[in-house]
Amino acid sequence: MIGFLGGTGPQGRGLGLRFALAGYSVMLGSRSAERAEAQAAGIKILARGADVRGGANEEVAAESEVCFIALPYEGQRPTLESLTGQLEGKLVVNCVNALALDGGPHLLNVEAGSSAEECRQLLPGARVTAAFHTVSAPKLLDPDSALEGDVPVCGDDPADREAVVRLANVIGGLRGVHAGPLRHSRTLEAMTALIISINTLYRTSAGVRFTGIDGEDNRADGS
Ligand SMILES: NC(=O)c1ccc[n+]([C@@H]2O[C@H](COP(=O)([O-])OP(=O)(O)OC[C@H]3O[C@@H](n4cnc5c(N)ncnc54)[C@H](OP(=O)(O)O)[C@@H]3O)[C@@H](O)[C@H]2O)c1
Predict the structure, then answer these.
(1) Residue 134 alpha carbon, nearest atom of ligand 1
(2) Is the pTM value of this prediction over 0.85?
(3) How big, in percent rounded to 5, are the helix, strand and coil portions of the chain?
(4) Based on the number of CB atoms within 10 Å of its own CB, is 218 exposed (0-12), middle (13-18) or buried (19 or more)?
(5) Which mutation among 15, 59, 71 tests ligand 1's pocket best, with the greatest number of atoms within 8 A of CB?
(6) Which tens digits make up the pLDDT trace of 160-179?
(7) In what order do the strands lie in the sheet with 26-30?
(8) Residue 97 and residue 114: Cα distance in Å, rounded?
């Protein structure tokens, strides 16, 4: 089961929809189980009756095999501090951008280096990766919208990274790309600020695409 902490927001619902359409069981989490159940019911309809449920963040963390962190940066620390036990040993995918939008998108100062690195500090027993920072939630949420682009995946364990690359590959139009250690998630968050700026200037939903990476299953030889 793929779970989403903060799953009632556009990013959690959008990724949840796409994974549900790809055949995965999905659980959306919230501070309010009722709110999560209501949002999950809407996504279940869009996903043509697939297995989509809602629940409190604690329940989602406990039941997930793979747990996405789809919280705003300010919600990450207070939420994760109470979930270390539930997330012990789990594969965690952090898509949090520590950004502020006032005066144009810019990075917030995160002492750990990035949201994902802070997440690793908060969840020392979890297998933390970082991905999906630059994928547009409104596009994910529209099942008729064709997605395109790359999903750079950061993580210190190549096997965990590979698992997330494969997850990205199940979403039609997206391609997971190995992007090296978790510290590179700083660049992913900075790149997101750049992309939001480009999208504002061009009134579009641009993403990222890396050239020169070929091969059907896009395996990276180096670690
Ligand atoms: N939106 C995008 O296009 C996009 C794209 C890529 C990455 N991201 C990243 O993905 C993350 C989620 O984005 P989003 O737009 O879905 O976020 P969001 O709507 O602002 O928040 C997601 C959910 O988090 C919960 N939440 C809000 N404030 C909280 C707090 N202080 N403490 C605990 N929970 C809180 C809320 O759920 P409940 O009230 O139900 O608990 C909310 O529905 C962000 O870090 C964002 O940078 C977003």
Answers:
(1) 6
(2) yes
(3) 40, 20, 40
(4) middle
(5) 71
(6) 999 999 999 999 999 999 99
(7) 52-56, 26-30, 2-5, 66-69, 91-94, 127-130, 149-155, 174-178
(8) 8
